[in-house]
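Progress note, sequence design subtask.
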């Protein structure tokens, strides 16, 4: 779809012209993921915004790859994203980590902090169990010692949807 092609709004059928811009991908469950170069069509008639995200499976793989190599401690949402990518229930992940599913839930909701050892184990587990990420186990293992104790909430993951290149950017602290 090119930037000058007319499309129909999915709500009212009005004519819209999509434009490429950055898009905060809240649908992934990760509020700090910004997809760059996504086509968005804003309808002037009804105010609806249609978002066209190509190659979602590849984008999710690239997000998972970036998360296991994140410079900061995993957030609960990031843990949930990795767990769901692996197709594991909270109970199944709990068995891998020798903990109760209620503890997994508390980590995922942010009620409890994910400890440094669990963070590193989750990254290795996610890499080892994901057939697409498995070849990078050694790279992730080498990265573990570089992870800061800073919260992943202090970082945004930016991804170019065309190249799938990812970059973590520090989020400025609110005054």
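Output:
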């Amino acid at each position: 779809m090119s930037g000058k092609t007319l499309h129909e709004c999915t709500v009212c059928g009005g004519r819209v012209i999509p434009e490429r811009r950055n898009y905060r991908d809240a649908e992934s469950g990760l509020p700090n993921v910004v997809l760059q170069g996504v086509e968005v069509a804003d309808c002037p008639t009804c105010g609806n915004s249609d978002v066209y995200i190509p190659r979602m499976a590849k984008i999710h793989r690239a997000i998972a790859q970036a998360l296991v190599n994140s410079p900061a401690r995993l957030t609960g949402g990031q843990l949930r994203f990795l767990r769901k990518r692996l197709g594991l229930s909270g109970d199944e992940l709990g068995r891998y980590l020798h903990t109760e599913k209620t503890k997994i839930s508390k980590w995922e909701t942010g009620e409890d902090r994910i400890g440094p050892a669990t963070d590193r184990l989750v990254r290795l587990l996610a890499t080892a169990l994901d057939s697409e990420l498995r070849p990078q186990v050694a790279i992730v293992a080498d990265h573990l010692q570089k992870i800061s104790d800073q919260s992943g909430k202090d970082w945004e993951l930016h991804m170019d949807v065309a190249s799938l290149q990812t970059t973590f950017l520090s989020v400025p602290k609110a005054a």
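The chain has a mean pLDDT of 93. Work on this subtask will continue into the next period as scheduled.
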